[in-house]
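Morning F.,

Quick status update on the modeling queue. The single chain you submitted on Monday has been processed. Sequence for confirmation:
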Amino acid sequence: MPKIVDHEARRREIIRVVWRLIAEEGIQAVTTRRIAEAAGFANGALLYYFPNKDAVLTAAFQHIFEATNARADEAAPERRGLAGMRTLCLEIMPLDEERVVEARLAITFWQQALNSNDKATVHAGFTNHWRSELTTRLEEARHDGELADSVAIDATADELLSMLTGLQILGVLSPCEATPERQLRQLDEFLTRLRRT
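Structure tokens below.
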């Protein structure tokens, strides 16, 4: 009787292999041949799950987004206001090895998105989702009396999203300067400036 294969489980397995390769060997190691070898597949078998390397990287980038949201949901399933916004920010920021690998993959994906409308659209969708959540948390903070009257919600959400993107870049390229302690201090000082005094 032929073996039944769980295709989604195999796809997740391949994405985990991609993560491990990036963490251990760098993004340059992510070739279809190397992925297949590390996953224990024949090179041609990998193409059954992903048509090419680009598709694997896109799926891995999508995994970053989903994993970040899942961690935030686990940490605070009913997050609200400035504390809830901080929870999401902590999961985006490269504060540990896992999130540094996520940031590495994100940077690689951004570079590819410069020349790919499809990847740029994927990135824009994820960015807009996070911007929407940050805006909602700020609106809650205003409703709950946490937010200073001078804070402009849309501009502040954009500013925070830009800061988080910058921290991902610095966490990868300048880890000695962008230490977890400095990142946390920057976030908390930003949030302090938003609070009603």
